Amino acid sequence: MGFGFLEAPMIRLLVAMLLLAGLGACATPASYTSMVPELATADLGPGPAPSYRGAITVAPVSIGNDTSVPWTSPIGSAEFQEALVRTLMVANLASAQNGRFRLEATLLKLERPYAGFAMTVTASIAYRLTDTATGAVVYQDTRTSVGTASLNDAVTNTNRLRIADERAIRANFRKLIEDLYALPERGPLTSSRRT
Questions:
Q1: Rounded distance between C-alpha atoms, residue 177 and residue 85, angstroms
Q2: How far apart are CA 58 and CA 61, in angstroms?
Q3: Residues 40-84 pLDDT 10s
Q4: Cα-flanking dihedrals φ and ψ of residue 160, to 5°?
Q5: What does the buried/exposed string (b/e) look like for 1-18 if buried means 16 or more CB atoms within 10 Å of the residue's CB?
Q6: What is the pTM of this model?
Q7: What are phi and psi of 20, to 5 degrees?
Q8: H or E stretch including 36?
Q9: Which of 86, 108, 139, 150 falls 20 to 30 Å from 55 in CA-CA distance?
Q10: Is 71 in contact with 121 (CB distance < 8 Å)?
Q11: Which H or E run contains 59?
Q12: For the purposes of burial, counting CB atoms within 10 Å of the CB of 53, is it exposed (0-12), middle (13-18) or buried (19 or more)?
């Protein structure tokens, strides 16, 4: 005699598992809006020094090799660039073009777990801010930050990983803004040099 009474529940379980696997393959790409930090209610002090307000142009960004693993939802350079530009806009630092300062950013690494109920991603981003008139580097640092997503955020591993990626980059951009707001005032371009 067979086990016919067990076949229906097993088939349903198998179908449910296949559907969940299919959902994981349909993960949405990273969204630049999810990488822009909330700054309006943040305690960032008096804001940036006057010489930096509306004066920073973002150079084309770079993406390191450690971010494009096939089974993940990688952050693309277009999304990364747009998120950085939008972050500077929210912080009143962005200049659409030909700003006095040029910000270069390289997404060096996204350290991701293979699987888990809570996914924690570590993002490392290198920044360099240059005064375009003098060529002086006024800020240079590599910032590391983390972002976590749990089962409450997404059921599938791929979507949890994408959310953790976005949160790690958002936290990194927040640290960048804190650093830029702390920069001292730069003298006007017409100031004479000391000899």
A1: 12
A2: 8
A3: 655 777 789 999 999 999 999 998 766 545 455 567 889 999 999
A4: -60, -40
A5: eeeeeeeeeeeeeeeeee
A6: 0.77
A7: -65, -40
A8: none
A9: 108
A10: no
A11: none
A12: middle
